[in-house]
Amino acid sequence: MKRRVHVLGTGGTIAGAQPDPGHYGYKAATYGVDWLLKAVPGLDGLAHLSGEQVANIGSQDMDNAVWLALARRLAEVLASPEADAALITHGTDTLEETSYFLSLVTASDKPVVMVGSMRPATAISADGPANIYNGVAVAADPRAAGRGTLLCLNDEVHCARNAVKTGTMNASAFSSMARGLAGVVSAGRVEWFEPAPRGRGAVRRFSLEGVEALPRVDILYAHAGMSSDLVDAAIASGAQGIVIAGVGAGNMSARVTARLAEAVEGGVAVVRSSRVVSAMVLRNVELDDDRLGFVAAGDLNAAKSRVLLALALMETCNPQRIQEIFQQC
Hints:
By secondary structure, the protein is α/β, with parallel strands linked by helices. Helix content is 27%, strand content 20%.
């Protein structure tokens, strides 16, 4: 019996149009979800499909307000007996952030799969149709249940927590880094790998009940000669949390470290991540987090650390408690 997959469209390159096939440029979010589904042959053999447009933007314009609207609509879809799973089409620029956010706030164990593409819909050898086809296959697979939000691109299946965009041009632009893939899928056939630790989605989830806006969290990119007035600007603009994309294992200059320690005393949460592609930022390594009141991000990059810190700040501003949340998620 075919399962029922509801598709939520948000725009992105996968819905983009390339006016001139001889040039790389294109306009994202040109086509709607119905057009995308009709462009993929054989989908009706995989599942019963329905769809709607939640947003139609390039994912560089994704923001907290769209996240909240998408999360609430997704929760409604998954709560309905009319849907067995959900597929979300999304641009790749912020796909890793949106997918991680959804993994942290989605309570249902029904499959949630996100797909995007590196080439627009009208490009030669567009990768979107194959990603949609395989994404529907993954969403319709009962074994996808309980694995948290998944990403399906380039014949690979990633857990949202692990996926990182590592390329800007070719179709193999996403990696699950040290934690590894959740599985592979080709021509609609899914092969699952043994689940890694945390491989079945987030250990804990956050409630959005009554939440109209997320706390502001800014990311500061560490570099040689970094000035501490960047910290001042973030705080003056209303940041309740700051994530440092630090050099190496989450380090930064002495003057920035000192200013961030003052910010912690003033009630601002500070998380140390890294600007390195494959990084591990451990507590009390490089800097004395216990003394400074900082939180170590572990293997979460700066973008995902921002997502988790914003959600954690809805519950607490205590650094020790935030550190526990980072270790859980």
